[in-house]
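Sat 14:20. Reprocessing the chain from the morning session after the first attempt stalled halfway. Input below, unchanged.
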Amino acid sequence: MGWDEAYYELEQDRDKALDIIKNYGGTDGGHHKQWVLDQVVRALTGPCYDNWVKKYEQGKDGPKTYEWDTGIAP
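Finished this time. Tokens:
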């Protein structure tokens, strides 16, 4: 993949993440806002989502120090 293609994909990912925030970010309820965060992470990480979650959950107490919450769709 060339630079132009990679840059275009990054722009698409960014635009998708911003659309999710614009369309759902104002929804009331912490569980819905967590869903928005999860969807933004998915848009920005693509096929690396599971690895991102594993790194997020890693902490000083081991691989499950923190728990990623996918929230509830509005």
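Residues 3-57 form one domain.
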